[in-house]
Design goal:
The complex is a heterodimer. By secondary structure, chain A is mostly helical. Chain A is built from 4 helices and no strands. The longest helix of chain A has 29 residues. In chain B, helix 1 packs across helix 2, helix 2 packs across helix 6 and helix 3 crosses helix 4. Classes of the chains: A mainly alpha, B mainly alpha. At the A-B interface, helix 1 and helix 2 of A face helix 2, helix 3, helix 5, helix 6 and helix 8 of B.
Chain lengths: 98, 184
């Protein structure tokens, strides 16, 4: 049997199609999972910049303090990642075989 | 309203109705592309990945500068999302349901020494071994029955390049199947 004929037979396999409510579901999921933009007031921004300016020179004076700072930053990031994962899994469809 | 104008308005105002219009307009084509990257045996995954593409589009719409057509940007995003998911999940051929590989139109080939099911399985195996781009063009053309024009839009390559990909993919498949005595 020729290659072309074998390949043409692929056309008989079922083709996936989007259902009637697919766009609505994608829109609902996208709206639910989009992180809200964090608005920081000018006063708050100045506070954090000043705090970083003071804390930086104090913390970055020895290796122990630098390690402490790195550990704190990593744990904050880990907790944030966990929060995002759990909030996404609550609204997303369950994963299939992938 | 054009896709580009709609995308720009959505990026500025984040109106869910604009987003839904974009999903309505391009959902079918994105699914077509994604399912061609995954192949015909992973339909449910294709739908999930197509959804992921639009979720990423929702997140990254600010990166669309309007320098290219919106569809070019979206289909490129879809291609990368699907290929990355395919690679990171390390989908293996063993996941494919072999029952589905009994292709209906070759069922009458009773004289063949190799059974129809075996022939179809070997064909599918060889297609799976092709590089991502070649496999995608084969599935787009033969399974999804996409025209060269559609493939040009989906893959962002000129028609002659698409034809060249198809030619090379067929040549590779032909060589591989000839070694197994499956082509005449």
């Amino acid at each position: 049997m020729s290659l072309e004929k074998q390949l043409r037979s692929l056309a008989n396999l079922p083709k996936p199609a989007v259902g009637p409510f697919w766009a609505a579901r994608v829109t609902a999921d996208a709206t639910a999972t989009t992180p809200k933009s964090v608005s920081v007031s000018r006063g708050e921004a100045i506070y954090w910049i000043a705090l970083a300016g003071i804390a930086g020179p104090l913390l970055l004076t020895s290796w122990q303090r630098i390690v402490c700072l790195v550990l704190v930053l990593l744990s904050v990031r880990f907790v944030a990642a966990l929060t995002v994962l759990t909030s996404r899994s609550a609204v997303r469809r369950p994963q299939t075989t992938l | 309203m054009t896709d580009e104008a709609l995308a720009a308005r959505f990026a500025a105002a984040r109106d869910p109705d604009d987003f839904r219009t974009l999903v309505d307009r391009h959902g079918a084509m994105v699914l077509r592309l994604v399912s061609s990257i995954l192949g015909p045996f992973r339909g449910t995954d294709a739908e999930d990945i197509a959804q992921d593409v639009f979720l990423r589009m929702h997140e990254r719409i600010g990166q669309f500068r309007g320098e290219a057509k919106f569809t070019t940007w979206l289909y490129r995003l879809a291609y990368h999302v699907a290929v990355n998911r395919l690679r990171t999940a390390r989908l293996r051929f063993e996941h494919v349901d072999l029952e589905k590989l009994r292709l209906p139109s070759v069922a009458a080939d009773a004289d063949a020494q190799i059974s129809t099911g075996e022939r179809a399985r070997l064909l599918a195996e060889e297609i799976e071994r092709l590089p991502d781009l070649y496999r995608t063009v084969i599935y787009l053309h033969y399974w999804q029955e996409a025209s060269i024009q559609d493939m040009t839009a989906l893959l962002g390559a000129p028609p002659n390049t698409i034809k060249s990909y198809l030619f090379r993919a067929r040549a590779r498949l032909g060589d591989a199947l000839a070694k197994k005595g499956l082509t005449t």
